[in-house]
Structures are given as C-alpha cells and as structure tokens.
Amino acid sequence: MSHTVTVTVPGTTANLGPGFDCIGAALSLYNILRFSAPEDTETPVQITVHGTESDRVVTDDRNLVYQAFAKFYTHLDKTPPPVQIDIELGVPLARGLGSSATAIVGGLVGANAFAGNPLSEAEIVRLAIAMEGHPDNVVPALLGGSQLSATNGDNWEICEIPWHEAIVPVVAIPDFELSTAEARRVLPEKYTRADAIFNTAHLGLLLRGLETGRGDWLRVAMQDKIHQPYRKSLILGFDAVRKAALDAGAYELAISGAGPTLLALTNPTNAPRVAEAMEAAWRACEVGVEVRSLQLDTEGAVCGV
C-alpha cells in the first residue's frame, strides 16, 4: 500500500415516516476517511480522529471503520494489511443520521480500493447490509440519492426514488443521544392488519410525494403507525417541535432513523422559517439543538486515490 485512499461518505436519514427499515436518503453532511500505509507495519491499525465528538471514537481494532475494512479482507479470505486510518467527523454520532453507516460504507469502499477493486458495487452493498443489519442507511450512504431496498430471496433489489428538487430536508439535531437498540426495544412484536394497511398506503403515497414534490401528499404520506408512535416518547419535546415545524410551513416532520434527530420536509421558501421554529421549540424545552437546512446528496460514497 504505497498510496492514500480518501473516501467521502454522506450521512443519511432513514424511514421518512412509513418507510421503516427500507427507505433512506443521503444528505449533504459528510465523514471523510483516509486510508494509507503506516510507517509502523508491526501495528495492524493506527487511527486518528478529528472533529466534534472525536474523543468518543475508539481508535483500536474495535473501531467500526476498521471492522468494515477487516471484514472486506475476511470476505476475500485474506489477512487485512496494516493500515493508518484518519477520520474527519462531520456526521453527529448516535443521532439518527447514519454515522455507523458512514463507517461501514467507508471502511468497505476504502478496503476495496486498496485491494484493486475486486468487488462490484452490488457486492459492497450486500456486505454493508450484512454488517448493518438493515439497508435503509448503508444503501444511500453508498449510492447517494433516496433509495428503496427490498429483499429478493437472499439478494436485494435496490430502487432509486426520485426526489423533487423543491423538497428541502431540514434536520434538528438535539444535544442528547438515542441508541438504535433502545429505539428498537420500544417497538411491539406484532402489529394489527389495520396498521399494516395504513403503512402500505402511506408508503405508496410517500413515493409519489417525493417524486412530484406535492406538499399535500407528503403531509399525509409521512404519517406512520409502525415505529414513530412508540419512539416519540423517547424524544423530549417531539410534539412541540413537530407543531412548530408545521406551523412554520413544513409539510410534515418525522423521526430521522432511530432518532433523536427530527427531519422536516418543506419547500425552499419556508425552509428558513421551519429551521428557526424547530430550534426555538426545542430550546423552549431546555434542549440544546443544532438545526441545518440540507440538500439531497446524489453522489454517495466518493473514493479518490
């Protein structure tokens, strides 16, 4: 390994209401990962981390980026080479914006580049989903855009969802965390037929709303009965922030991934007002928050040598 590979991976939002565990979208915030040959080849991995919350990231072989890097070589029945990994954080940790997906995708893409790109994009997708356990974050992190993933036996069918240019994602990122494991524990084991039908109908409408940009459709489509009614109790201020966003002109608000970040979809005109209203509502609940108006990332993971 005589060269350096740089992989830029976007953060993501998942579910978008009724698209639980199957829909995700790449957003314009990024983690940057650099892989290079270390001077000390006796040490399997050397990791440095920069950016907000960098002190919370482990820098040994438990690091998720390295675990993905090593998983790639294990898949090829090869021993991972010694590697220096430099991580520049731009995606908040444990906030429902796909930070683990950026690590998995970045580690796999970086390893593939070092190995001469022996695996296809589809093979990287399968490895990433296997590591993450579900496709909603890793698929858009790798491919960009908004993506729908469905199983086909042991394989996956990936479908890009058209996203109208007039739809602006606004994220409100609170200063508390919510683990995916905790967010899954509150979900019921079974759902009624009525709830299943409700989500099926709303998922179909969501796809059309995203494609056309029709706010009236999105307002209805982002409603959900599978995960949000149970998870919102874990998010202090949820109802207040949602009301503020809707009053300011958002089409609707959803929990981003497992939370606690909240995602509002709106139009370019209302986006600044929606952002201000969401921030004010959460601060009124004595919760520190960072609010960003973002764009859909259409490139996904970008690898440069």
Structure description:
Strands 1, 2, 3, 4, 5, 6 and 11 form a seven-stranded mixed β-sheet that branches. The protein has a four-stranded antiparallel β-sheet with strand order 8-9-7-10. The chain is an alpha+beta fold. It contains ten helices and eleven strands. The N and C termini lie close together (11 Å). Helix 2 crosses helix 3 and helix 6 (193-212) packs antiparallel against helix 7. The chain folds into two domains: 5-161 and 297-304, 2-Layer Sandwich (Ribosomal Protein S5, domain 2); 168-293, GHMP kinase, C-terminal domain (Alpha-Beta Plaits, 2-Layer Sandwich). The protein is globular. The mean pLDDT is 95. 46% of the residues are buried. Helix content is 35%, strand content 26%. The longest helix is centred in the middle third of the chain and has 20 residues, at 193-212.
Write the layout of secondary structure elements.
Elements: E1 5-15, E2 19-36, E3 45-50, H1 64-75, E4 83-88, H2 99-114, H3 121-132, H4 138-143, E5 146-152, E6 155-161, E7 168-174, H5 180-185, H6 193-212, H7 215-221, H8 228-231, H9 238-247, E8 252-255, E9 262-266, H10 271-284, E10 289-293, E11 302-304
Parallel strand pairs: 3-4
Antiparallel strand pairs: 1-2, 1-11, 2-4, 2-5, 5-6, 7-9, 7-10, 8-9
Helix pairs in contact: 1-2, 2-3, 6-7, 9-10
